[in-house]
Amino acid sequence: MVSIDYELKKIVMDAHINETLKYCYQCNRCTDNCPVSDIVPERYDPRSLILSSFLGFKSIIFGVEDTFNLWGCTICDTCDEVCPQNIELTEIFTALKNMSIKREEGPKYFISQASSIYESGKAIPMQSAVERRRAQFNLPEIKPPNIEEVQKILNRTKLNKILEKNKEE
Ligand code: SF4
Ligand code: SF4
C-alpha cells in the first residue's frame, strides 16, 4: 500500500505559489501537451506526477529505478501554460528535483553539467574549434567568465557541497 508523506505534501503546497490554491482535477491537458510525454509516454507523465505530489505519495516519486519519471521534464513550461487550473507544475517539479538531489538520486549527467558550470562558469566549456570558427567569421572574442564570482554565487546554493558529496562516491 502507498503511504502518504505529509512533509512532501507541505513542500508541494509551498512550491505551489499561485495566489489562489487550486487543485488538479486530472483533465490530462498537461500530459497531452507535454513534448516528453509525447515521445516516451511510458516513462514520463506530468499528470500522474502532479497527482502523486499532491497526494504525498513519496514512494511513487522517489527511490524508483528509472529517475526519468521526474528528471524527464525539460522545463519547457508548456504544461504551466495549458493547465486550466493555473497550477505551476514546473515550480512543483523543481521542488521535487531538489528533493531528489538531497536524496542523492540526481542523474549523473545533471551532476556533471553542474560541475562544468561550477568549474568553468559555462554549461559547455568553450572549445578551440569554436574559437577558430568565430575568428573566421570576424566575431569578437568571448571573454572568460569570472569563475570566482560564479563560484561565490553557487556556494550560496551549497552546490559545492553537493558536488563534493557526489565526488566522494
Ligand atoms: S492540466 Fe492541470 S488540472 Fe489538468 S491534469 Fe494537468 S495539472 Fe491537473
Ligand atoms: S515543463 Fe516538463 S512536464 Fe511540462 S510540458 Fe514541458 S517537459 Fe512536459
CATH architecture of the largest domain: Orthogonal Bundle
Level of helix content? 55-70%
Helix-strand string: HHHHHHHHHHHH
- The CATH class of the largest domain is Mainly Alpha
Distance between the termini: 32 Å
Give the total of domains: 2
Q: Output the radius of gyration.
A: 19 Å
Q: What is the mean pLDDT? A: 91
What proportion strand? Answer: under 5%
Protein architecture, described:
- This protein is an all-alpha fold and 169 residues long.
- It has 2 domains: 6-102, Fumarate Reductase Iron-sulfur Protein, Chain B, domain 2, CATH 1.10.1060; 108-168, no CATH class.
- The chain has 12 helices and no strands.
- It has helices at residues 6-15, 29-33, 35-39, 46-55, 58-61, 68-71, 78-82, 89-102, 108-120, 128-136, 147-156, 159-168.
- The longest helix is centred in the middle third of the chain and has 14 residues, at 89-102.
- The chain is globular, with a radius of gyration of 19 Å.
- One iron/sulfur cluster binds at residues 34-36, 46, 73-79, 89-90.
Q: Main attributes?
A:
12 helices, 59% helix, binds iron/sulfur cluster, mainly alpha, Fumarate Reductase Iron-sulfur Protein, Chain B, domain 2, 2 domains, globular, 169 residues
